[in-house]
Amino acid sequence: MGSFITDILDWSEVWGTLIPLAVWMRHKEQPGYLRPVVLYIWFALAINLTVDVIWKLKTVIPRPWNTNNYLYNLHSLVRFYLFAAFFIRLNQPFLVRVKRLLPWLFGLFVVLNFSLAENFFNYYNLSSRLLALEAGILLFYCLQYYFYKVKEDQEIGINQPDFWVVTGLGIYVAINFFIFLLYNELVAYDIRFAVDIWTVHNLSYILLQLFLAKALYESTRR
Question: How far apart are CA 59 and CA 97, in angstroms?
Answer without folding.
Answer: 48
